[in-house]
Amino acid sequence: MATTPADIRIPTDLLPGDGRFGAGPSKVRDAQVSALAAAGRSPLGTSHRQEPVRALVRRIRTGLAELFALPEGYEVALGNGGSTAFWDVATFCLVRERAQHAAFGEFGAKFAKATSRAPFLAPSSVVEAPAGTVAHCRAEEGVDVYAWPHNETSTGAACPVERVAGSREAGALTVIDGTSAAGGLAVDVAQSDAYYFAPQKSFGSDGGLWLALLSPDAVARAAELEAERWVPEFLSLTTALTNSRQDQTLNTPAIATLLLMAEQLDWMLEQGGLAWTTARTAASAAHLYGWAGSRPWATPFVTDPAERSDVVGTIDLDDALPAGEVLAALRANGVVDAFAYRKLGRNQLRVAMFPAIDPEDVAAFTACVDFVVERLG
Ligand SMILES: *Cc1c(COP(=O)(O)O)cnc(C)c1O
């Protein structure tokens, strides 16, 4: 009889091949890490202004263009600072007067806060919905940017990328946080003007970088605003774009992050691109939600199946079954990071199902939870 959750030993044949289920940073495949060490041809520790690192940036830009079937005229830009930095980039360079945000979790709310606090903008319009559901932007006079997360990583709810009717004709941009969705959820990039993300989620790389797929309208908006508004150089989208076009970043990037990202992109494209990655995340999600629905002590947190994310699954547990104990037992067996977003404060498991994560490992994860729950009584 186990005395504490951490004493529970899960039989090895139940364990996943890889025990990383965190929603970011997320599982990095071994083949990516091996590429970092590739003898004699590693660009680590070399200048980011020279060809080997610029070739890496080029590989990422062309890889993303292929993966997302980039519409005519769209461009791939990148810079340092992660998605959080891009919120400030967008606040300065994309919002002319007033943004409208759909906020239904931590990340959507954070961007809303960034634009709301900018002294040179009108207070943002925020359409809210409770965690575990989805809010939709709606046409509003005077709004020149509509923004929402494609996947709300803090709650496991996903919202389709589809322009607000009439918004483009009214001259408004659509700015989508694809941080955890990009690479793992289907998207028609033409429905957005800026689809931005960071590499440590669905791309299984490391953090610190932002990447954005920009429409000609977004590029023009940045040029217009930066001509009339002071913008810190680090947050200038035009400067980022100028550097990106030369396969560089404004300042020194983490070369390891670039390399891990390029390896993951090549892998995704070799396997069949977004059609393959999204089929894989859908298979993982179908298993996870089906499993939760069939256990009396588990319930998918997102009640509307249409709003459930295929890349981040949130499963509420019965109050009699503390998630902390389940997580402690899992961690003691090398199955890690399936904790709920801390500010959500729910008795919940949150399971990343990014493309790098094998659907068989998601099945193994649920078998491990079953085993632990049985032992915990
Ligand atoms: C992780 C995450 C962010 C923050 O990304 P950073 O690169 O850490 O700034 C923003 N939005 C969403 C949807 C995320 O999942």
From TrEMBL:
Function: Catalyzes the reversible conversion of 3-phosphohydroxypyruvate to phosphoserine and of 3-hydroxy-2-oxo-4-phosphonooxybutanoate to phosphohydroxythreonine.
Pathway: Amino-acid biosynthesis; L-serine biosynthesis; L-serine from 3-phospho-D-glycerate: step 2/3
Signal peptide segment: none
Catalytic activity: 4-(phosphooxy)-L-threonine + 2-oxoglutarate = (R)-3-hydroxy-2-oxo-4-phosphooxybutanoate + L-glutamate; O-phospho-L-serine + 2-oxoglutarate = 3-phosphooxypyruvate + L-glutamate
GO terms for MF: alanine-glyoxylate transaminase activity; L-serine-pyruvate transaminase activity; O-phospho-L-serine:2-oxoglutarate aminotransferase activity
Keyword Transferase listed: yes
EC main group: transferase
Keywords: Amino-acid biosynthesis, Aminotransferase, Cytoplasm, Pyridoxal phosphate, Pyridoxine biosynthesis, Serine biosynthesis, Transferase
Entry's EC annotation: 2.6.1.52
Domain Aminotransferase class V: 143-319
Family note: Belongs to the class-V pyridoxal-phosphate-dependent aminotransferase family. SerC subfamily.
The encoding gene: serC
Phylogenetic placement of the source organism: Bacteria, Bacillati, Actinomycetota, Actinomycetes, Micrococcales
Protein name as catalogued: phosphoserine transaminase
InterPro entries documented for this protein: Aminotrans_V_dom, Pser_aminoTfrase, Pser_aminoTfrase_mycobac, PyrdxlP-dep_Trfase, PyrdxlP-dep_Trfase_major, PyrdxlP-dep_Trfase_small
SUPFAM superfamilies: PLP-dependent transferases
GO biological process, one term: glycine biosynthetic process, by transamination of glyoxylate
Species of origin: Luteimicrobium xylanilyticum
Cofactor requirements of the protein: pyridoxal 5'-phosphate
Key word Cytoplasm present: yes
